[in-house]
């Protein structure tokens, strides 16, 4: 009974002291849940584990050798039996009485299933009810135990039993309620908060006080932090010591709607979109419209880099560390809150923090990926938000926790249909509950923007009209998404005219190295960005051959030359990021350096190259890469590099149609057709390179993006070239349709009642769904840490899904599998994992053929 009181009190605190009471109310068409509604949900919460009184579960608690009997299925199956015990259970639970709270018998069953299905996935009654688990045996009566608990709720939550209107049935509300209850159960199960006491006679008052304290210590009650901002609307100076650019000011001063809002901010790389987003968050937070922020980025590297900036900005906005909202790094493999890393993981999913009395509470959300979105402020990858809409374990917990936040999605692109469809659905639920979201991009096409902002109600502009739209651009709409408003405002005054030089060098690593090293010898900082890790490694080795004895020209980490890509241990990724910013940062004095990387340097890293070499890629991606070229207005550039220059590495074959297979799929060198599947966009980009030898950024951003991504432009390419391009267009159309259909198949349908047979999750889909999101990676633990290629102790490595599809899924939780056959030879770490051999060295992790 104590745990029942704890979870009910925790739910009560979440609904009364966070914005979740408003969010759930909004789903019912109300401003807020009424006191009676809150009390009634708390009564249900008290009954969430009532199934544990069955004889089988109790026997297992006393004797671990007893047969394993759960507490969910043995209870819910009573809904599908005609055994006489059903009537006793109905009476003990008070089903007939509480049915009036929800409108009727079917409605109360739906609420009970949403209550009992709090372990991360919906549940449905099945045949095979085991009545003997519930009949009185000796002096033990499970039915009496249920009745005792139900009667206790009458004293705990008397308002629930007052005469009040019934809930309006809403399937979306049920899904959200389940997520909040699951969060309450997780928090209410923390034995360090809700400890056992000798005297449990007044457990509910103890539980209520502990719940309030937990919200305070974890930073989930925003009241003190909000009050610290003062009565007046915070100025931009709260987030930055520099005057705002016009686009930042306009974004910060957008209207604040109580029914939610969606904003799309399109502005060039380096124009301060991050600060604009945080300023928007501070204003919404001050107005009581959000309790926190989730900053979603496309890659782990981008997330870890931006996290530092967010921590520093929060320190500026909330100088008092005692009331500052905690900021967690929501990236699996990391354990960090407020910029402080945990000491280590402990058994039983515990974590040792440097200041246990402080960080243990503030870092609670960082300790497990399922909790990430329950933090006050979290910075992580987009997949954590997208998982809230998918049929995977604890999706409802993620979704309901996310409702508290301003959802900021950085670098939104139109190129991935599957991910865009998932984002659409996440936004639908978020805005339906009155939530707020901000999407940012330097290169978003008009078709995708229109669909996101209007839910597909409006047709996008034609190609010529779209190409003439202003840039930068803010598009803002309230939660109904019916009348979007567009605002144009300049970003920074910085502009650059980039010389575009296409050279057919992509398949010749030695030639790429020759061009890059020649520039480095003249004092230039040269950055090479390749589409694949394999070609990145090839160029790294070619660079080492080309420099000869002039090793000082090579990018290195602590004297060890290396490429920059994703397949390194977490500690080494941090070292790589720090090293590349030290070598290519705004204020570095280093000259004459060349580094080769993949997409890991496209976003968030503050690096500034004098010369950029890049593989051919869609123009929206290419513009992201150009953001690393002459990023800052530095005067002292080496001779010959005062003007920005991009060398686009092109394949030997000009006819990209030669890489289109009979199936219509593209498969060319250097990731053409594989990493970037739409050959039409690649062809359009190549044409832009041929047509315009200079690109003025950001003035040309809009036209470049629309010319290479707009459906009309892509159709024109197919019409011009015909042949294989027709089959490719059909393939891309089919792929887009299939991706949307696959997304719809994998998405939670919140129009279906929680617990309905169509709402159930298929457990075998978990793996495929997460792999499609990039969540199928495997973390490998090394029991006795070894020194990695850059001198850091390596305790854990992440294997990409394609390298480890033979390994069991760890669901992003604490790794359970360890590397074996570990040995260090010739500056490389060798190990086995799940029947496969691997090598890890300064070039990253690779499969090893013995």
UniProtKB/TrEMBL annotation:
<dbReference type="InterPro" id="IPR050547">
    <property type="entry name" value="DEAD_box_RNA_helicases"/>
</dbReference>
<dbReference type="Pfam" id="PF22590">
    <property type="entry name" value="Cas3-like_C_2"/>
</dbReference>
<dbReference type="GO" id="GO:0003723">
    <property type="term" value="F:RNA binding"/>
</dbReference>
<dbReference type="GO" id="GO:0016787">
    <property type="term" value="F:hydrolase activity"/>
</dbReference>
<dbReference type="GO" id="GO:0004519">
    <property type="term" value="F:endonuclease activity"/>
</dbReference>
<feature type="domain" description="Helicase ATP-binding">
    <location>
        <begin position="254"/>
        <end position="462"/>
    </location>
</feature>
<feature type="domain" description="HD Cas3-type">
    <location>
        <begin position="1"/>
        <end position="187"/>
    </location>
</feature>
<keyword id="KW-0479">Metal-binding</keyword>
<protein>
    <submittedName>
        <fullName>CRISPR-associated helicase/endonuclease Cas3</fullName>
    </submittedName>
</protein>
<keyword id="KW-0378">Hydrolase</keyword>
<keyword id="KW-0347">Helicase</keyword>
<comment type="similarity">
    <text>In the N-terminal section; belongs to the CRISPR-associated nuclease Cas3-HD family.</text>
</comment>
<dbReference type="InterPro" id="IPR027417">
    <property type="entry name" value="P-loop_NTPase"/>
</dbReference>
<keyword id="KW-0255">Endonuclease</keyword>
<keyword id="KW-0067">ATP-binding</keyword>
<dbReference type="GO" id="GO:0003724">
    <property type="term" value="F:RNA helicase activity"/>
</dbReference>
<comment type="similarity">
    <text>In the central section; belongs to the CRISPR-associated helicase Cas3 family.</text>
</comment>
<dbReference type="GO" id="GO:0051607">
    <property type="term" value="P:defense response to virus"/>
</dbReference>
<keyword id="KW-0051">Antiviral defense</keyword>
<keyword id="KW-0547">Nucleotide-binding</keyword>
<keyword id="KW-0540">Nuclease</keyword>
<dbReference type="InterPro" id="IPR006483">
    <property type="entry name" value="CRISPR-assoc_Cas3_HD"/>
</dbReference>
<dbReference type="InterPro" id="IPR054712">
    <property type="entry name" value="Cas3-like_dom"/>
</dbReference>
<dbReference type="GO" id="GO:0005524">
    <property type="term" value="F:ATP binding"/>
</dbReference>
<dbReference type="Pfam" id="PF18019">
    <property type="entry name" value="Cas3_HD"/>
</dbReference>
<dbReference type="GO" id="GO:0046872">
    <property type="term" value="F:metal ion binding"/>
</dbReference>
<dbReference type="InterPro" id="IPR014001">
    <property type="entry name" value="Helicase_ATP-bd"/>
</dbReference>
<dbReference type="InterPro" id="IPR006474">
    <property type="entry name" value="Helicase_Cas3_CRISPR-ass_core"/>
</dbReference>
<dbReference type="InterPro" id="IPR038257">
    <property type="entry name" value="CRISPR-assoc_Cas3_HD_sf"/>
</dbReference>
